[in-house]
Each structure stands twice: as structure tokens, then as C-alpha cells.
């Protein structure tokens, strides 16, 4: 979240090659929301299952890349891997950003409820386009919170796939992330005071903050943070109906195993899978060192860990076979 500052038994060879990316749009407030559609062939007249991929916080695009230093297109890799297993997908640009820039005038003028409303719109478009009776919704990081919020009011979700999703309110997670880095010691008092204020619904004068954290609490995003801090993922998941996968990398330095456990405790029927050697951006890491972990974020040569795709595909195909 400081970045604002996710085994199929069928052999891939047994399935026809997926079609290339296609353009797809959903209605937005002032212009279209845009995404990329990857279709997979159905079987016996039944359409292939579909998954909507919701990116995480900040300027993260439909492929999972960010100008803040994340590269490698892990969501595109995930979509391609799922298609090879007979699962279609739509990955999206959030309202106000990238291909969806025309949907609203100000990308910062949003709430979690707005993003959840967009998810509902995308589900309707996907169902109409592909003929599926329901859509799997995958949320990565903060996208998992959006998925949980959307699921409170949507009945045509096949299930939720929560990948690297916090189990605590965002303010608590942000505190933990800041405290986890020893280099942040000089700025902690300023940053923690700002979080306290935003949690209480009060905006912060950045002139009173340490310069190193002023960007994290930019006035343009404070209304969004005040809104987002109100949501408790554990409370939301307890109210979700239908299958839920909680997928967490053990080498994630932004969201921890304790978050996955909180979600699991709130929804005991959920399936929880932890993956050794997988970090927050779903890439394999061989070291526990923070520097080596973060270095993979911007290295496009490091591909998504295959276990991520395998776990998600297994969940979807098992749920679809019911």
C-alpha cells in the first residue's frame, strides 16, 4: 500500500490456444472504463469460466505495472496462464487511470464504493459478452478490499480470489509497513500522527509533516484515504456468500501471513493457501532480504511464480465443476 505512495490438473496442451487480447469497455461516470479481454474456448457448448482481475493501490495498470517501479506485467502473465487452462479473464484500468482516464476528471476523486460500483458494472458487461452465469473476482492487494466491498451487494459473483489482501483496516497495515523498515525510524512519529488523524476523519496539513512522508499523504488523496481507512476486510469477508480463496505469499513484505489468517478466521469456510518464496507482486524470491525482494518489483525478467497461476486455476476449475 505504500506503493500508492494478487495446480490445475488439466494439461495446457489439452486445451486449444487462447485468443489474443481483445478490447472491452464498461460504462463509467463520464466516459468508458477500459480493459483487456482474454477469452478461452468453452466445452460442450458451455462458456469458459471468466475472472475479473482488479489491480491494487495507486497507479497500477491492467497488466500490474506501475510508474512507481513495478514492471513485469504479472497480471497479463496470469491471464495468459489461466487461458492456457481454459479460463478467460478481463483485466482492467481503474477509473481515471490509463485507458480509463476519461471515466472521471480526477483519478483521486474516488471512494472504495466507487470502485466496487465499477466492479458490478464490469460483471454485467462480462456476462453479456461471454454468456457466463457468474464471474470470478480476483483482487490483488487493495484490489482485494474492492472485491470484498463489491461482493456485499452482488449475487452474480462465482467466488472471490483474494491475493495478497490485507486482513486489517488499511491504517493498521500502513502503520505496520512503516514500522517494518528500520530506515523509517526518523519519520515514524510524523507518519503515525497523520494516520491517526485520517482515521479520525481529519485531513492533515502536510506542512506539519516530515518532508519524507508528505508525498504519502498528498492532499489530493487524503479524502480517499479517509474513506478507505473505514473498511475492515475481516468484517466484510464474514458476510460474503460463496467460495473464497485467500492466497498469500510467505515472502510478502507488504501484506503478511497474519493478514491471511485474520481473513481465514473471519471466514472459516474459505480456502487459504500460502506460497513459500512468493512476494507481494507474485514473483519468486530466493532471499529473505528486503533489498533483494524489492529488486524483483522492477525487474521484468522475473516472471510470476507458476504456483500462483496453478492455485488460482485449481480453485476456479473446482468451483466451476460443481
How would you portray this structure in words?
The longest helix is centred in the middle third of the chain and has 19 residues, at 112-130. A hairpin with a 6-residue loop joins strand 1 (22-26) and strand 2. Helix 4 runs antiparallel to helix 5. It is built from eleven helices and eight strands. It has helices at 74-83, 112-130, 142-151, 170-180, 188-199, 211-214, 219-228, 233-238, 257-266, 290-297, 306-320; strands at residues 22-26, 33-38, 50-54, 88-92, 135-140, 157-163, 244-249, 271-275. The protein is α/β, with parallel strands linked by helices. It starts with 21 loop residues before the first strand and ends with a helix. The chain is globular and about 65 Å long. Strands 1-2-4-3-5-6-7-8 form an eight-stranded mixed sheet, sandwiched between helices. It has two domains: 2-168 and 233-320, Rossmann fold (3-Layer(aba) Sandwich), CATH 3.40.50; 172-223, no CATH class. The chain is 36% helix and 14% strand.
Features:
322 residues, alpha/beta, eight-stranded mixed sheet, 11 helices, globular, Hydrolase, alpha/beta fold family, hydrolase, Hydrolase_4
Count the beta strands. Answer: 8
Number of domains in the coordinates? 2
The share of residues in extended strands comes to 5-15%
Helix and strand composition category: alpha/beta
Mean pLDDT: 92
The unreliable regions are 1-19
The helix-strand sequence is EEEHEHEHEHHHHHEHEHH
Q: What sort of overall outline do the alpha carbons produce when their principal axes are compared?
A: globular
Subunit organisation of the chains: single chain
Alpha-carbon Rg, integer: 19 Å
The number of helical segments is 11
Query: Could you tell me how far the N terminus lies from the C terminus, measured between alpha carbons in angstroms?
Result: 36 Å
- Just give the CATH class of the largest domain: Alpha Beta
What's the arrangement of strands in the largest beta sheet? 1-2-4-3-5-6-7-8
InterPro entries: AB_hydrolase_Est10 (IPR053145), AB_hydrolase_fold (IPR029058), Hydrolase_4 (IPR022742)
Protein name: Hydrolase, alpha/beta fold family
Keywords: Hydrolase
GO molecular function, one term: carboxylic ester hydrolase activity
Amino acid at each position: 500500500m505504500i506503493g500508492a505512495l494478487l495446480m490445475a490438473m488439466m494439461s495446457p496442451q489439452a486445451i486449444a490456444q487462447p485468443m489474443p487480447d481483445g478490447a472491452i469497455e464498461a460504462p463509467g461516470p463520464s466516459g468508458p472504463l477500459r480493459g483487456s479481454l482474454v477469452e478461452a474456448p468453452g466445452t460442450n457448448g458451455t462458456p469458459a469460466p471468466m475472472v475479473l482481475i482488479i489491480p491494487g493501490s495507486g497507479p497500477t495498470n491492467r497488466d500490474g505495472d506501475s510508474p512507481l517501479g513495478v514492471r513485469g506485467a504479472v497480471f497479463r502473465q496470469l491471464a495468459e496462464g489461466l487461458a492456457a487452462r481454459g479460463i478467460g479473464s478481463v483485466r482492467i484500468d481503474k477509473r481515471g487511470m490509463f485507458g480509463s482516464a476519461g471515466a472521471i476528471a480526477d483519478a483521486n476523486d474516488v471512494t472504495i464504493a466507487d470502485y466496487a460500483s465499477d466492479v458490478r458494472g464490469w460483471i454485467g458487461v462480462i456476462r453479456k459478452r461471454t454468456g457466463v452465469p457468474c464471474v470470478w473476482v480476483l483482487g490483488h492487494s487493495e484490489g482485494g478490499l474492492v472485491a470484498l466491498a463489491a461482493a456485499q451487494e452482488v449475487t452474480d459473483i462465482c467466488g472471490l480470489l483474494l491475493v495478497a489482501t490485507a486482513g486489517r483496516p488499511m491504517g493498521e497495515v500502513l502503520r505496520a509497513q512503516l514500522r517494518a523498515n528500520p530506515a523509517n525510524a526518523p519519520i515514524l512519529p510524523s507518519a503515525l500522527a497523520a494516520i491517526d488523524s485520517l482515521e479520525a476523519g481529519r485531513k492533515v496539513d502536510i506542512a506539519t509533516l516530515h518532508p519524507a512522508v508528505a508525498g504519502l499523504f498528498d492532499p489530493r488523496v487524503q479524502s480517499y484515504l479517509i474513506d478507505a481507512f473505514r473498511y475492515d476486510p475481516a468484517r466484510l469477508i464474514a458476510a460474503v456468500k460463496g467460495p473464497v480463496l485467500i492466497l498469500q505469499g510467505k515472502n510478502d513484505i507488504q501484506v503478511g501471513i497474519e493478514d491471511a489468517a485474520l481473513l481465514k478466521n473471519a471466514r472459516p469456510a474459505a480456502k487459504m493457501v500460502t506460497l513459500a518464496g512468493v512476494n507481494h507482486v507474485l514473483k519468486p524470491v530466493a532471499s529473505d532480504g528486503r533489498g533483494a525482494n524489492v529488486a524483483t518489483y522492477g525487474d521484468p525478467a522475473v516472471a510470476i511464480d507458476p504456483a500462483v497461476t496453478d492455485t488460482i486455476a485449481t480453485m476456479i476449475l473446482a468451483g466451476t465443476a460443481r
